């Protein structure tokens, strides 16, 4: 019997083609419904490899169940959906998709910043709804981006790539990170500051940190109150880094000027969520890495990693 691979979302046939000759490949085909937990548990019970998404919880219970599992290839750079310790104990190799998504994610993060500051989405809605009756000097006037200060929280490769975009806009770049980044300091003129200083000085606070015990709930009422009233909050990292109630309050009370959000505590977010009722919020359905080229590269990388592990080779991008 061929070893089996279960993929938790429908991937294009061309992507899975290299697997078909040697493996029994099965995919969850329903595009609008995430794979139910009982199905995932059942499939994990017999699979040698899983290709998973962030919404699939790869926890201790599942790993306990997965007696022949050798590898989980997560279609994301993040892996906060996976219990790494349980995987290690079971000898399951975890792979992610770093690097291939860095530029694309940075592009969209900067786009979100621009959309929030220059009110691009609001203006699009305004014109399409037939509300453009006359021109006035301050019609949909937004905030400038060039020569302003960007504060990047989480200076990994995506953070650094956003900093490069910011440099092109003549921005002053501040960052806060677990460790100093000499390349960003020397190459881009980024300045390492404390979190307090970053919040106080930045016109754009941009979160690009992974979700960890240290970053969960990092942004509360106090952090928003410490920001400039004219500042924008951009999150392209993970929803749970932010207390959404505190963010909603800060936006409603004018404690900050606006937000651009690609991620939420609950995904998909309910369209009645208070954050989505605010005009000064630009919201996206977690699409920062979603260009055709990049998502294809991420899918191909997952397939290559699975094949490498099942052949006994070192995968290209293994999570340490
Ligand atoms: C995911 C992401 O690819 O890479 C990450 O960590 O958040 C996204 O790029 C997307 O959510 C699909 O899992």
Protein architecture, described:
The mean pLDDT is 98. It is built from twelve helices and twelve strands. It has a seven-stranded parallel sheet, with helices on both faces. The longest helix has 19 residues, at 292-310. It has helices at 13-20, 37-46, 60-65, 84-90, 102-118, 120-128, 157-168, 182-188, 195-201, 221-226, 244-252, 292-310; strands at 4-7, 24-27, 49-52, 71-74, 93-95, 149-153, 172-176, 191-192, 204-207, 232-235, 258-261, 281-283. It is globular, with a radius of gyration of 21 Å. It has 320 residues and is an alpha/beta fold. It folds into two domains: 4-100 and 292-310, Rossmann fold (3-Layer(aba) Sandwich); 102-283, Rossmann fold (3-Layer(aba) Sandwich), CATH 3.40.50.720. It binds 2-keto-D-gluconic acid.
Oligomer: single chain
Shape: globular
Largest sheet geometry: 7 strands, parallel
Strand order of the largest sheet: 8-7-6-9-10-11-12
**Count of individual beta strands:** 12
Unique ligands: 2-keto-D-gluconic acid
**What's the overall average pLDDT, rounded?**
98
Radius of gyration: 21 Å
Unreliable stretches, pLDDT < 50, 5 or more residues?
none
CATH homologous group name of the largest domain: NAD(P)-binding Rossmann-like Domain
């Amino acid at each position: 019997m061929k070893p089996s691979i279960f993929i938790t979302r429908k991937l294009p046939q061309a992507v899975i083609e290299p697997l078909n000759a040697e493996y029994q490949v099965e995919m969850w085909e329903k595009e609008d419904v995430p794979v139910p937990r009982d199905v995932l548990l059942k499939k994990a019970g017999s699979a040698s490899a899983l290709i998973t998404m962030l919404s699939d919880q790869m926890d201790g219970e599942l790993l306990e169940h997965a007696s022949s599992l050798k590898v989980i290839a997560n279609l994301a750079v993040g892996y906060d959906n996976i219990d790494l310790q349980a995987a290690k104990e079971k000898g399951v190799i975890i792979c992610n998709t770093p690097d291939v998504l860095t530029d694309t994610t940075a592009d969209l993060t900067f786009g979100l910043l621009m959309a929030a500051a220059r009110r691009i989405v609001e203006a699009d809605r305004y014109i399409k709804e037939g509300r453009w009756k006359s021109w006035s000097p301050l019609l949909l006037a937004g905030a400038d981006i060039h020569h302003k200060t960007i504060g990047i929280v989480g200076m990994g490769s995506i953070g650094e790539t956003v900093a490069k975009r910011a440099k092109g806009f003549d921005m002053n770049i501040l960052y806060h990170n677990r460790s100093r980044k000499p390349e960003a300091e020397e190459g881009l003129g980024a300045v390492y500051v404390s979190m307090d200083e970053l919040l106080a000085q930045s016109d754009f606070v941009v979160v690009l940190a992974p979700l960890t015990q240290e970053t969960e709930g990092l942004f509360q009422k106090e952090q928003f109150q410490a920001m400039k009233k004219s500042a924008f909050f951009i999150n392209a990292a993970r929803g749970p880094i932010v207390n959404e109630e505190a963010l909603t309050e800060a936006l409603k009370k004018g404690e900050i000027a606006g937000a651009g959000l690609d991620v939420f505590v609950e995904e998909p977010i309910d369209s009645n969520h208070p954050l989505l009722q605010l005009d000064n919020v630009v919201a996206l359905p977690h699409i920062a890495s979603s260009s055709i080229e990049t998502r294809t590269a991420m899918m191909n990388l997952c397939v290559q990693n699975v094949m490498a592990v099942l052949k006994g080779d070192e995968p290209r991008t293994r999570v340490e």
